[in-house]
Amino acid sequence: MRRPLVAGNWKMNGTRASVAELIEALSQQDIPAAVEVVVFPSFLHLAQAVSGLDGEMIAVGGQDCAAEAGFGAFTGEQSASQLADVGCEWVLVGHSERRLILGESDEVVSKKFAAALECGVIPVLCLGETLEQRQAGQTLKVVERQLARIIADVGISAFEKAVVAYEPVWAIGSGLTATPQQAQEVHAAIREQLARKDQRIAEGVRVLYGGSVKVENAAELFGMADIDGGLIGGASLKANDFGAICRAAGN
Fold first, then answer.
1. DSSP the chain
2. CA distance 89 to 116
3. Quick one: angle between helices 215-222 and 180-195, nearest 10?
């Protein structure tokens, strides 16, 4: 039985004051013990979140890491070892905003994935297609390519210590959401691709859905056979909504 996971990506949001308020509000939420929860603040607020959520049922992760695992002359970067040092257990890699806006290639994403594992940080590998790619019927081809690069470079065994998140680019922040059936189709394809290499690992890996998940649609999405939780954007900045989504995952 795969344990549900709900992850909140705060993106480039927050001040010290607003983050303190959000942490306090999150600490008051009724989070089911059966659900694993992690939040991804901005780098500026990681230490604050780690300290503020200490003792709570909510872990903290970084929104990105460098392709280099340790230290070096990489101005503006943060390595996975630095994330671990500040208390982070998780890191997002390959988020669509980094792929599309900042030009990260499958090769770069693969190196970041490997660097996270090397440093003992759990990577959440983000995969997904644009609206143009979906309209052209290329959804499964695009997602398969993105995943295949990781499998080829790092190996299938890496997914024993990783999570996958399917996030259709056209649904992120748009208010649009893949139907539960559309999401399930892609999640099942991801699991099948992994199963071609190792059935046991495929059955154990958690695949999250990300793309305008909100209180109103969370339960139906999470009810699909291969959807194991969500990567939540805007709703993760509202403690009551995020708590409700966590409870939906627990049901």
1. -PPPEEEEE--S---HHHHHHHHHHHHTS---TTSEEEEE--GGGHHHHHHHTTTSSEEEEES---SSSS--S-TT---HHHHHHHT--EEEES-HHHHHTS---HHHHHHHHHHHHHTTPEEEEEE---HHHHHTT-HHHHHHHHHHHHHHHH-GGGGGG-EEEE--GGGTTTS----HHHHHHHHHHHHHHHHTT-HHHHHH--EEE-SS--HHHHHHHHTSTT--EEEESGGGGSHHHHHHHHHHHH-
2. 10
3. 40
| Residue 249 amino acid letter | A
The pLDDT value given to residue 1: 82
- pLDDT, one tens digit per residue, over 26-77 is 999 999 999 999 999 999 999 999 999 998 999 999 999 999 999 999 999 9
* Structure-token pair, residue 130: 């644009």
- Average pLDDT value over all residues in the chain: 96
Q: Is the pLDDT of residue 21 over 90?
A: yes
Six-digit token string for 201: 């690992």
For 168-181, the pLDDT digits (tens) are 988 877 777 789 99
Question: One-letter amino acid identity for 123?
Answer: P
Report the percentage of the chain scoring pLDDT > 90.
Answer: 93
Which of 47, 54, 48 is CA-nearest to residue 27?
Answer: 54
List the one residue out of 7, 49, 4 whose CA is nearest residue 25.
49
Task: Tell me which residues are annotated as active site.
Answer: 95, 167
